[in-house]
Amino acid sequence: METFMGHTQTASYLTGPKFGGSGAPTFLPSISTMQSSYKAYDAYPAPSPLRRSLTTLPWRPSTYYQTAQVNPSTAVTKSLPEPLGYTNQLSELDSIKVPPVFVAARSALYTRYTPNDWSHSNNSNYMASDRVRSSAERLRMDTARLCLETADKTVRTQTDVGKRLGERIGDIQLWKTEVNHETDNMITEIATLVEKKRILEKALQETENPLHIGQECLYNRERRQQIDLVHDQVERELIKEVDIIKRCQEKMRQTVERANMQLSLNRAAQHELEKDSGDKILALNLDGTCHTLKNTSRGINFHDGIQRIDNTLSVPETWAKFSNDNIQRSQSERAASKQMRNEIESVLNQCSNEMWSQWNGVNVGFNQRVQETNETRNKLQTHLSRVLQETFDMEKNIELLKKAIQDKEAPMQVAQTRLTTRTHRPNVELCRDPVQHRLVEEVAEITGTVENLQAKLRQAENALQHLLRTKSTLEQDLSVKNNSLFIDREKCLGMRKTFPMRSSY
Q1: What letters, b where the CB count within 10 A reaches 16 and e where it falls short, cover 220-254?
Q2: Fewer CB within 10 A of the terminal residue: the chain, N end or C end?
Q3: Average pLDDT rounded to a whole number, residues 480-486
Q4: How far is CA 215 from the centre of its chain?
Q5: Are 439 and 415 in contact (CB under 8 A)?
Q6: Strands 18-19 and 89-90: what pairing?
Q7: Omega of the bond prior to 49 within 30 degrees of 0, cis?
Q8: What pLDDT, on the 0 to 100 scale, is given for residue 6?
Q9: For residue 325, is pLDDT > 60?
């Protein structure tokens, strides 16, 4: 009997179905209360032969036992201590008959728990179920409360962000208005300064006319001859006029350069204002787009990790200070530009007055000098009239001699051409006949005549030179006076009738 019942609860027993007379499998009683342990034995493949294992202990609650599929060639029950022996296997084909006590022993072996254990197990399951359900209920309540809190917090946060976006849009709009207003003022100031600079540059170009006239007068007066080439009052006034004009031009050029520098500073300030305004317009559009976004808006999407990217370059204080600095810089440049415009007006008026006064002084000196020269010329004209007549007659005689010499050119060409043609006669025909002698004499005769005429021409020219030297004193003095009078009255005063630039701007 002890052989079938085993030794202790830790003893190993073989499990498996027992086939009755009807052929239907009979399962061992279930130890575990978990539904997952109720599995059919034929659901798993059975190893052959059956083995002992710690997982096949049906009386241990903390373990699962392994079932095996019935193999007809292997005994489905084992009752000996050594189940691996082939002679100890029991099957329906063996002639060994199991004693009647075997079924009772098996039932006693598999009933290892008391009713108290059973009740305690059920109560434990009830309490565990209550605890799990209570924990799950608390979790559901906490989850619902958390969902409500997070939803409310998300709405409040989103509303606060929208409010802050609206405030930010208002700040951007305010500063953009200020920047645009200052930009308009700067554009107006730049246009005004450009106009003033244009007037100054035009005046600078116009000073070239009086400067050219003054230099031309000095250049013309350098053509005066001999005794009239004096450093008189007119020449001193002309030199002073040229110096004044050059000094005014230099002052205007320096003013134009400063105006250009001021325009560069103005345009730089305008550029910063326009850049700031453009950035604010873009930021206003972006923040306006963000302000209009809702949970139902199109185009929203996930951007993982975007909150960790910090590409900001300023804080509200430095942001406002940046625009304020641009506005203050523009205002400072506008004040400097206004001062530059006043300086341009002052330079224009000062230079115009100086050049106009000197212009009038030079004209007065020219009129006095022309009057003196004209009186001297009238006195010399009477003494030179007869000398000029004689000079004219001698010039006519010289022209007559030149014409006589020129008339001898055609006969000389004919005679020389005849001699040249006769050199082409052939052989014995090349004879020194009378014609040849006469042609040679003709060439010599014409040559002698021309030499005589040229001698007469030289004599006439020498006579003319003696005549010119004779009258040179009066004629030279008269020509000097005529030249001086022509230069001062015709060339110089003719260019100085009107002042070639505006007297005021």
Answers
A1: bbeebeeebeeebebbebbeebbebbeebbeebee
A2: N
A3: 86
A4: 49
A5: yes
A6: unpaired
A7: yes
A8: 41
A9: yes
Q: Which amino acid is at 421?
A: T
Helix, strand, or coil here: 18? strand
Counted residue by residue, the chain has a size of 505
Report the DSSP beta bridge partners of residue 89: 78
Residue with tokens 């399962």: 27
Mean local confidence (pLDDT), 319-340: 93
- Both tokens of 233, joined, read 């009052």
**What pLDDT score does 342 carry?**
93
Q: What is the 3-state secondary structure (H, E, C) of 31-60?
A: CCCCHHHCCCHHHCCCCCCCCCCHHHCCCC
| Contact yes or no for 211/249 (Cβ under 8 A) | yes
For residue 47, name the pLDDT band (cuts at 50, 70, 90): very low
Closest listed residue to residue 49, CA positions, set 78, 18, 20 = 78
Q: What is the mean pLDDT of residues 336-343?
A: 93
- Rounded alpha-carbon distances, angstroms, from residue 384 to 86, 388, 485: 178, 6, 17
Would you list the DSSP string of 320-341?
HHHHHHHHHHHHHHHHHHHHHH
- Integer-rounded Cα Rg, in Å, for the chain is 69
How is residue 226 annotated by DSSP?
G
pLDDT top residue among 407 and 339: 339
Please choose, from the candidates 67, 62, 75, the residue with its C-alpha nearest in 3D space to the C-alpha of residue 31.
Answer: 62
The average pLDDT across 114-140 equals 92
Residue with tokens 């206004």: 338
DSSP 70-103: --TTS-SEE-SS-TT-GGGEE-TTSS----THHH
Q: With beta carbons less than 8 A apart as the criterion, state whether 460 and 398 touch.
A: yes
What is the C-alpha separation between 398 and 186, in angstroms, rounded?
82
Question: What is the spatial distance between Cα 58 and Cα 68, in angstroms, rounded to a whole number?
Answer: 14
Nearest residue to 264 via CA among 184, 186, 346? 186
Cβ(488)–Cβ(373) below 8 Å: yes
